[in-house]
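protein under study:
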Amino acid sequence: MKGNFQNIINGPTPVLVDFFAEWCQPCKIQAPILKELAAEAGEKVKVIKIDVDKNPEIAGRFQIQGVPTLALFKQGNIIWRQSGVIPKQALQQIVNQHTA
Protein backbone atom coordinates (compact mmCIF):
# COMPACT_ATOMS: atom_id res chain seq x y z
CA MET A 1 0.00 0.00 0.00
CA LYS A 2 2.85 2.40 0.80
CA GLY A 3 4.02 2.90 -2.81
CA ASN A 4 0.46 2.98 -4.09
CA PHE A 5 -0.55 5.55 -1.48
CA GLN A 6 2.32 7.83 -2.46
CA ASN A 7 1.36 7.59 -6.16
CA ILE A 8 -2.28 8.37 -5.36
CA ILE A 9 -1.60 11.47 -3.22
CA ASN A 10 1.03 12.76 -5.68
CA GLY A 11 -1.40 12.59 -8.60
CA PRO A 12 -3.08 15.60 -10.24
CA THR A 13 -6.46 14.95 -8.56
CA PRO A 14 -6.89 16.15 -4.95
CA VAL A 15 -7.26 13.21 -2.54
CA LEU A 16 -9.33 13.18 0.66
CA VAL A 17 -7.84 10.53 2.95
CA ASP A 18 -9.86 9.04 5.81
CA PHE A 19 -7.45 7.67 8.41
CA PHE A 20 -9.65 5.26 10.37
CA ALA A 21 -9.73 2.09 12.47
CA GLU A 22 -12.22 -0.79 12.40
CA TRP A 23 -12.90 -0.52 16.14
CA CYS A 24 -13.56 3.25 16.02
CA GLN A 25 -17.25 4.21 16.50
CA PRO A 26 -16.88 7.80 15.16
CA CYS A 27 -15.20 6.30 12.07
CA LYS A 28 -18.35 4.26 11.45
CA ILE A 29 -20.39 7.47 11.58
CA GLN A 30 -18.01 9.23 9.17
CA ALA A 31 -17.96 6.38 6.59
CA PRO A 32 -21.41 6.92 4.98
CA ILE A 33 -20.80 10.69 4.90
CA LEU A 34 -17.61 10.12 2.90
CA LYS A 35 -19.36 7.65 0.61
CA GLU A 36 -22.01 10.27 -0.25
CA LEU A 37 -19.37 12.97 -0.72
CA ALA A 38 -17.34 10.74 -3.05
CA ALA A 39 -20.43 9.97 -5.15
CA GLU A 40 -21.36 13.65 -5.43
CA ALA A 41 -17.83 14.99 -6.01
CA GLY A 42 -17.19 12.67 -8.94
CA GLU A 43 -13.84 13.38 -10.65
CA LYS A 44 -13.17 16.51 -8.59
CA VAL A 45 -11.65 14.60 -5.66
CA LYS A 46 -10.65 11.02 -4.82
CA VAL A 47 -11.75 9.68 -1.45
CA ILE A 48 -9.66 6.87 0.03
CA LYS A 49 -9.55 5.12 3.39
CA ILE A 50 -6.39 4.15 5.27
CA ASP A 51 -6.76 1.73 8.19
CA VAL A 52 -4.19 2.98 10.72
CA ASP A 53 -3.86 -0.48 12.29
CA LYS A 54 -3.01 -2.10 8.94
CA ASN A 55 -0.85 0.81 7.72
CA PRO A 56 1.09 2.02 10.79
CA GLU A 57 3.98 3.38 8.71
CA ILE A 58 1.66 5.72 6.79
CA ALA A 59 -0.17 6.77 9.98
CA GLY A 60 3.17 7.43 11.67
CA ARG A 61 4.51 9.45 8.76
CA PHE A 62 1.55 11.82 8.99
CA GLN A 63 1.50 11.77 12.82
CA ILE A 64 -2.08 10.49 13.06
CA GLN A 65 -2.91 10.62 16.77
CA GLY A 66 -6.66 10.03 16.68
CA VAL A 67 -9.23 8.55 14.34
CA PRO A 68 -11.03 9.51 12.29
CA THR A 69 -8.59 12.05 10.89
CA LEU A 70 -9.34 13.44 7.45
CA ALA A 71 -6.62 15.00 5.32
CA LEU A 72 -6.90 16.62 1.91
CA PHE A 73 -3.81 16.17 -0.26
CA LYS A 74 -2.98 18.14 -3.37
CA GLN A 75 0.08 16.97 -5.36
CA GLY A 76 1.47 15.17 -2.31
CA ASN A 77 1.02 18.01 0.19
CA ILE A 78 -1.54 18.22 2.98
CA ILE A 79 -3.62 21.33 2.33
CA TRP A 80 -6.25 20.65 5.03
CA ARG A 81 -6.51 18.27 7.98
CA GLN A 82 -8.95 17.72 10.84
CA SER A 83 -9.77 15.00 13.37
CA GLY A 84 -13.25 13.93 14.43
CA VAL A 85 -16.52 13.42 12.59
CA ILE A 86 -17.08 16.16 10.03
CA PRO A 87 -20.55 16.84 8.56
CA LYS A 88 -21.01 16.45 4.82
CA GLN A 89 -21.78 20.14 4.23
CA ALA A 90 -18.52 21.18 5.90
CA LEU A 91 -16.57 18.62 3.85
CA GLN A 92 -18.22 19.82 0.63
CA GLN A 93 -17.16 23.39 1.42
CA ILE A 94 -13.58 22.31 2.10
CA VAL A 95 -13.38 20.26 -1.11
CA ASN A 96 -14.93 23.08 -3.17
CA GLN A 97 -12.60 25.64 -1.61
CA HIS A 98 -9.47 23.63 -2.46
CA THR A 99 -10.48 22.26 -5.86
CA ALA A 100 -11.90 25.40 -7.47
In short: The mean pLDDT is 94. Residues 13-84 form a domain with the Glutaredoxin fold (CATH 3.40.30.10).
